[in-house]
Amino acid sequence: MLKRLSRARDYASQAQSTAVATRETSKLTADQTERDHWLDGETKIADAPDKHGDETHLWLRLLTCTTLIETEIRRGLREEFDFTLPRFDLLAQLERAENGMVLGEISKRMMVSAGNLTALVERLVESGHITRTTSPSDRRVQIVTLTPFGHSAFGEMAERHRAWLNNLFSGVSAEERDVLLAALAKLKISVRQGLAQER
Question: Are residues 127 and 78 in the same domain?
């Protein structure tokens, strides 16, 4: 009887270990798949370069880099702080505003809808990172402000955020970064001009 119980416990322990390993492997596979998905964009057009112009190559290169970096930032925030990138972005906006910000201004800066922002604010109020008060001059206006806890938490995350970016950009020299910044600034102007013409 004791031997049967011992074997049963061994089987249960092995099953639990297998389940944990499976979950970890699945998570790693999912993260890698997400990264590889964006690498495929450039790989696909490389098979038929004559069918795509320089603009397509440039756009996919920008998209690939942006997505790879964003994926790594999301992973770091999730694993180290149990936090999401949208929440981090909201705290970053408030960290620059000592007197808080109204919801409408935050919505414009983060380029998110009022509905999505309201849900985001609600969660951060519940977690104690921010406060939400009514404007004394207009009761229809809500002012959102960082709490001391939110300020401290953001400081820790921002420090790690800088470290992640430093690591990801470590292969690019300071001079090359300056060239990239200048080129991307010019591209940004070109995109805005193109959008204005479309409208």
Answer: no
